Amino acid sequence: MTLRPVGAGASVIIAGTATTSSAFRVRTNALRVVAKGKGCHVAIGTDPVATTANFYVAAGEPETLAMTKASQVVASVTKGTTTVITAPEGTQMPFNLGDRVTLDAPAAKIDSNWLTLINDTKVVGKSRSAGVGGDFLEKITVEANTAGIATAFSPTTHATLFMSNKVSVISPNPTAAAVAYIQQVQTTGSA
């Protein structure tokens, strides 16, 4: 199997209590985990807390774990104390209640406040209107308070909403110092 790195890698300290990485945009369905110094149990998700019941990665033995990848082009954003994000007509939002999402767009085309505030924020509502009087648009509501952003969101920003995940690790043997390295990867056939 051949691996292609996607985005930047990160590291998480392996300890006797669960430690969790920063959030990252899920851009592929595979995550490579390498434990250095000692093995660890690994949990992946929106708000994971690793326990010794989770998948075990042995020290020095790389593992490639599956993730759920989801993204959606953004048609519009309605600012407020909670924020409503709308998908283009005829498409669906692949996100569910409790998922976390991050907005991404070319920096030159968007007020950076949108990217800062809609960053690893929780989906708290989902709606779809259709039929007579409906607009055939699917929308999600996220916890982000965007009421104070002065610049209106423009659909010409080419913004995309991505699923956000974190990785949590814990050691069954907390005596030695160690670290887990994580990297999103694309996999291809045999090497």
Question: Could you characterize what this model shows?
Answer:
This protein is mainly beta. The protein contains one helix and 15 strands; from the N terminus they run E-E-E-E-E-E-E-E-E-E-E-H-E-E-E-E. It has one helix spanning 112-117, and strands at 2-14, 19-20, 24-25, 30-36, 40-45, 55-57, 63-66, 71-73, 76-78, 83-86, 100-104, 121-129, 137-142, 160-170, 178-188. Strands 2, 3, 5, 6, 8, 9, 10, 11, 12, 13 and 14 form an eleven-stranded antiparallel beta sheet that branches. The protein is elongated, with a radius of gyration of 19 Å.
SSE class: mainly beta
Mean of all residue-level pLDDT scores: 91
Order of helices and strands: EEEEEEEEEEEHEEEE
Termini separation (Å)? 5 Å
Q: Regions with pLDDT < 50 over 5+ consecutive residues?
A: none
Helix percentage: under 10%
Keywords:
3% helix, mainly beta, 191 residues
What topology emerges from the helices and strands here?
Elements: E1 2-14, E2 19-20, E3 24-25, E4 30-36, E5 40-45, E6 55-57, E7 63-66, E8 71-73, E9 76-78, E10 83-86, E11 100-104, H1 112-117, E12 121-129, E13 137-142, E14 160-170, E15 178-188
Antiparallel strand pairs: 1-15, 2-14, 3-14, 4-7, 4-15, 5-6, 5-14, 8-14, 9-10, 10-13, 11-12, 11-14, 12-13
